[in-house]
Design goal:
The protein has 224 residues and is an alpha/beta fold. It is built from five helices and twelve strands. Helix 1 crosses helix 2.
């Protein structure tokens, strides 16, 4: 796949739409797409926030991916750190947590479009919060969660630990990576962090560079 720049596709909206277009042919299960951003040296955050690495094009790609999705999956840490709010109508947000503590972003859970996903063996969730139970040993079973979303396009937005668990379990179909033209050093986690991932090969399906030097890549898992 040739990586494009704006000179090859000057219509920005078309460029982004092609980058995020959902394949016509996919399995009957949940179609899971991971979207992450990294610095040029592989860092996942600046001062604890991935948003510190982005720019306007990254925000546009993020919005387009959300617009193409039926559901979003995100870890509680990311939902708190990035100040998540309720999603648009028609989009369900699933926030994965190991304990029923919503104090970091309580307003988020006032929406009926937000579901708190907890293991079966943790305490009672706050009243009025939509809760889904999946998993044990204080760990959410991501395969079970996604099994309940069969036929839907699911956008996984991290953080790195959730991304790592999805990759390790072989649950990802596509990986969207924005490479920010910054070198940040420090000790931040990689964008996919955790156990060794499923060794399946991946193909680069689309890519482009914007005027600021940000690189946008779309990988798809190669069929077995």
């Amino acid at each position: 796949m040739r990586v494009l720049d704006r000179d090859h596709c000057p219509d920005f909206d078309v460029l982004v739409a092609n980058h995020v277009a959902v394949p016509d042919s996919r399995s009957s299960g949940a179609f899971v797409r991971l979207n992450m951003i990294a610095s040029a040296d592989g860092g996942s955050a600046v001062s604890g926030l991935s948003g510190g690495l982005g720019n306007g094009t990254d925000h546009a790609v993020f919005a387009a991916l959300r617009a193409a999705a039926d559901a979003v999956v995100v870890g509680m840490g990311t939902a708190v750190a990035e100040h998540y709010g309720p999603p648009r109508d028609g989009l369900q947000l699933y926030v994965i947590a190991s304990r029923p503590d919503i104090s970091g972003n309580p307003g988020l859970f006032e929406s009926d479009r937000v579901t708190l996903v907890l293991p079966d063996d943790v305490g009672h969730a706050p009243d009025g919060v939509e809760v889904l139970r999946a998993g044990s040993d204080k760990t959410v079973d991501l395969a079970k969660l996604l099994g309940g979303l069969a036929g839907q396009v699911v956008m996984a937005e991290g953080g790195p630990t959730i991304a790592g668990r999805l990759a390790a379990a072989g649950l990802l179909d596509e990986f969207f990576l924005t490479v920010s033209p910054r070198v940040i050093g420090g000790g931040t986690a990689r964008v996919v962090h955790g156990p060794d991932a499923d060794p399946a090969s991946w193909d680069l399906h689309h890519g482009f560079v914007d005027d600021d030097g940000y690189l946008f890549l779309r990988y798809a898992r190669r069929p077995a």
